[in-house]
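testing teh design pipeline on a random one, pls ignore if ur not involved
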């Protein structure tokens, strides 16, 4: 299985994390893949990263700004949300994507983590702020102590959008994230995410972007824009005891 890691998160000895790739296999059950294959991919992933498969918590992602504080009930039924947050050790959190940005948060002082799904909708709804607010409300975190790693997602090079999205971005004062080329509109989601992280008070030196475009690189990543019918890769983060 091929993974890649955040250099910033890898500095923390009490933290396990990884971003998976296409070679790790599809991790989603809702994309018409054989369920046994998906289960096998999850078992291999759990073995590689050293956690119990049954302890993994993932989401029913709905392109919202909902942030969910993990509870014991979540082990049996994935919550409907687009961000998971916890300070429970040995509780791996997963976000699954195929063009949207997988985001991992770590509070180095309060020892808390989050896994976030942010596509256009999540960026427009500022799920970043909602997640940072959840760290502050639940764990008394300070933004300056948060480290953030953003994995591969669709780049501005490939993310063409219609005039209605351009107008929505303008209405939200996000026009800075739209590139106009040959009378076509291209959205830079990472530019929005970085701006929102900085506004929340997260240090620029604590933010790390992959900057790989999933749509350009379907050899290594699943891409809904490029492939339509496709799997999902993921990002996982877990606090160790």
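output:
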């Amino acid at each position: 299985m091929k993974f890649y890691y955040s250099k910033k998160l890898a500095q923390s000895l009490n933290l396990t994390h990884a971003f998976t790739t296409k070679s790790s296999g599809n991790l989603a059950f809702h994309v018409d893949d054989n369920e046994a294959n998906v289960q096998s991919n999850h078992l291999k992933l759990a073995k590689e990263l050293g956690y119990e498969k049954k302890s993994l918590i993932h989401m029913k992602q709905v392109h919202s700004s909902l942030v969910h504080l993990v509870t014991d009930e979540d082990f049996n039924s994935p919550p409907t949300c687009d961000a998971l947050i916890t300070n429970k050790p040995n509780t791996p959190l997963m976000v699954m994507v195929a063009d949207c940005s997988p985001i991992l948060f770590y509070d180095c002082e309060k020892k808390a983590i989050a896994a976030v799904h942010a596509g256009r909708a999540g960026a427009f709804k500022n799920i970043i702020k909602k997640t940072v607010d959840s760290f502050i409300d639940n764990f008394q975190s300070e933004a300056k102590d948060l480290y953030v790693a953003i994995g591969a997602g669709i780049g501005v090079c490939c993310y063409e959008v219609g005039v209605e999205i351009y107008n929505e971005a303008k209405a939200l004062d996000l026009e800075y994230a739209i590139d106009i080329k040959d009378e076509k509109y291209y959205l830079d989601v990472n530019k929005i995410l970085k701006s929102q992280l900085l506004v929340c008070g997260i240090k620029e030196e604590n933010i790390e972007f992959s900057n790989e475009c999933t749509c350009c690189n379907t050899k290594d990543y699943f891409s809904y824009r490029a492939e339509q019918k496709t799997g999902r890769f993921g990002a996982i983060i877990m606090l160790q005891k």
